[in-house]
From TrEMBL:
This is Nucleoside triphosphate/diphosphate phosphatase. Mg(2+) 2 binds at residues 105, 107, 120, 123. SUPFAM superfamilies: FomD-like (SSF159234). Keywords: Hydrolase, Magnesium, Metal-binding. Pfam families: DUF402. Residues 18-152 form the DUF402 domain. Its cofactor is Mg(2+). NCBIfam families: PRK13662.1. Mg(2+) 1 binds at residues 87, 103, 107. Has nucleoside phosphatase activity towards nucleoside triphosphates and nucleoside diphosphates. The active site is at 23 (proton donor).
Length: 176
């Protein structure tokens, strides 16, 4: 398959630092594809957890992955606005199987009014010790939380007012 092209349907695989699978999203449509950035869209896609349980996403989402930043951003389109779920993670890689990244537990939830909360700090600390995250990874992740918060506050990238609307319209063209 090579690097995905716009319109391709891909899987997304999330791993933990120890190499174990964390979560798989069955189908995401590629809306933009470059070496540095992949933007995808999905709606009601099946998600498989590490323990084999499955569930289906409830709303359309636009997903933003970058090859240089240690986070990814999912904008979930709900009736009362766009909610963002941001995973602090490794930059993505893509192989013939899927888009892949390592999930480092810390998450940032952003509400339609652009207020946010940092989630799972306790889980991060537990896994940091259990999986022996190197000090350099810990520093990179904390620096990228700061980058992410500056993007939120500055309404940069996926947080800009028109970003989700633009890419959702593009996603809809693939559904027609």
């Amino acid at each position: 398959m090579g690097f995905p092209k716009e319109g391709d349907k891909i899987q997304i695989h999330s791993y933990k630092h120890n190499g174990s699978i964390h979560r798989i999203w069955e189908e995401t449509t590629v809306l933009r594809s470059s070496e540095n950035c992949i933007i995808g869209g999905n709606d009601r896609t099946t998600v498989t957890e590490a323990d084999g349980r499955t569930w289906i996403t409830r709303e359309p989402a636009i997903c933003y992955f970058h090859a240089k930043y240690w986070f990814n951003i999912i904008g979930m389109i709900r009736t009362d606005g766009v909610y963002y779920y941001c995973n602090i993670s490794s930059p993505f890689v893509f192989d013939d199987e899927a888009l892949k990244y390592i999930d480092y537990d810390l998450d940032v939830k952003v509400f339609p009014d652009m207020t946010y909360i940092i989630l799972d700090e306790d889980e991060y600390e537990r896994h940091r010790k259990e999986m022996n995250y190197p000090g350099v990874i810990d520093r990179i992740l904390k620096k990228n939380v700061s980058y992410l918060i500056s993007w939120i506050c500055g309404r940069k990238g996926p947080f800009s007012p028109e970003f989700i609307d633009r890419w959702y319209e593009q996603f809809l063209t693939y559904l027609r």
